[in-house]
Specification:
- The structure is a homodimer of 251-residue chains.
- Chain A is α/β, with parallel strands linked by helices and 251 residues long.
- The first copy, chain A, has a domain of 150 residues: NAD(P)-binding Rossmann-like Domain (Rossmann fold, 3-Layer(aba) Sandwich).
- Chain A contains nine helices and eight strands.
- An eight-stranded mixed β-sheet of chain A has the order 3-2-1-4-5-6-7-8.
- In chain A, strand 4, helix 2 and strand 5 form a beta-alpha-beta unit.
- The radius of gyration of chain A is 23 Å and the shape is elongated.
- Chain A starts with a strand and ends with a helix.
- In chain A, 47% of the residues are buried.
- The mean pLDDT of chain A is 95.
- Chains A and B meet through helix 4, helix 5, helix 6, helix 7 and helix 8 of A and helix 4, helix 5, helix 6, helix 7 and helix 8 of B.
Chain lengths: 251, 251
């Protein structure tokens, strides 16, 4: 049995509380929130505190607050030498200070309050300063997810960059597709099966194997017709740069 | 009952033959292929011809060959005034010539020979030169798919551009994510749940609502850290351009 205390009440904190509460080998001892009412649907009132000096004893303390607030919460902890982790993909482990034994417990998924998540499928990226703290963190992670990875701070930085390309930028390209449809009175829905299939394909093929389209076919006629069609200079620039990038990658 | 003849033996032609053969109200009268053996697993031998002058009578002739070959196949047809359509997203209807009544039957999906497709979910984009030819084409389309759209030639061009952004370019960004992972000894698998969730999100949210990440948050510190991290000049350029584009879109 691993005992855990969650500090925070945002989307990630709430998804963690829910997942740990449903896990067999985890005891959610307490949660800390500046606005305890945000957690009333998840925990009994006597398990929620807004007083950081009233924190109970636990094996692991998980700080799941906005990136800018992590350092302040860590600095306010009224104890030392305990295992304290944050859940941020883009924040170094060092912001947790030196009073406690530090780690990272980063769930690599996009969480919305409105949408349930199959936590068993969420990759959890773990890091600890001291190797002897890894087993407890790993045990905690395995109790809620089947996808547990030991990821160094430098790797986590790389992973965050990769996620920006493969998710944030991808969503922006969906948006450009939607705009082109809208401007031509085409329902965006017509593109969605192709979008889903494009994402599904890379579960069995590498992106290199899955690449299709005029760029990789070096179909210069179609590329030129597309560039003639696109009036917006910014879109022209994106089209040209990504076409070149595909062709350089597949040379 | 609509009778149909398929000309071609590639991926799209094969998926069409399979879908029409399974449909209640369609008779696949014949297929034409320069290499008939490519279709032996789909049709009895006496229904396959490699002689374009031996084509039988049918309500609709579907030319499903590579874009560059459509005009030649259409010009070689030994009849006139019949309904002849092609299946290309990026080819004008006019390449079909003037001897026959022309149309387009464009399935907007990425077809691989190795992967089955739920044809009922494939959007079919229809165009005909003469309005009176649309009902027959629509009836044929509805017999295999629930998603049938009347799309003009200009709209089809726009749709093809939108698909390049939302699918071909998206796959390239998956590839960049995979490369960044690989260079840092991170399994690309770790990103896949997030990639799937990003695609799933836009089935219920608009891409504008679904946008997350440092660009839309205007998190200049994280953006700068990412640009410092990226060494490859081409990736830096893509990162910068797409970050600017997100910020302009969400101004």
């Amino acid at each position: 049995m691993v005992s855990v205390i969650i500090l925070g009440s945002g989307n990630v904190a709430q998804h963690l509380i829910r997942a740990f509460s449903n896990a067999d080998n985890v005891a959610v001892v307490q949660a800390y929130a500046r606005h305890p009412e945000k957690l009333h649907h998840l925990l009994p009132e006597d398990k929620i505190t807004d007083n950081i000096n009233a924190l109970a004893q636990a094996d692991v303390y998980i700080i799941s607050v906005s990136d800018n607030a992590i350092a302040d919460v860590a600095a306010a902890l009224p104890f030392k030498d305990r295992l304290v982790v944050h859940t941020s993909g883009s924040t170094g482990i060092d912001v947790l200070g030196t009073a406690n034994r530090n780690g990272v417990f980063y769930p690599l998924q996009t969480f919305s309050s409105a949408k349930a998540v199959h936590f068993k499928e969420v990759p959890l990226c773990l890091e600890t300063v001291r190797a002897e703290d890894m087993p407890a963190l790993k045990s905690l992670a395995h109790s809620v997810s089947e996808k547990v990875y030991h990821i160094t701070g430098a790797q986590r930085q790389a992973l965050h960059v990769a996620a920006v390309f493969s998710c944030n930028f991808v969503n922006h390209l969906y948006g450009i597709g939607a705009t082109v449809c809208e401007e031509n009175n085409i329902p965006f829905n017509i593109l969605k099966p192709l979008i889903q299939e494009t994402a599904a394909k890379i579960t069995t093929l590498s992106p290199t194997e899955a690449q299709t389209g005029p760029a990789v076919r070096k179909d210069t006629q179609t590329i030129q017709r597309h560039l003639d069609f696109i009036k917006d200079e910014r879109l022209k620039e994106i089209y040209t740069l990504l076409t070149q990038s595909i062709q350089q990658t597949h040379e």
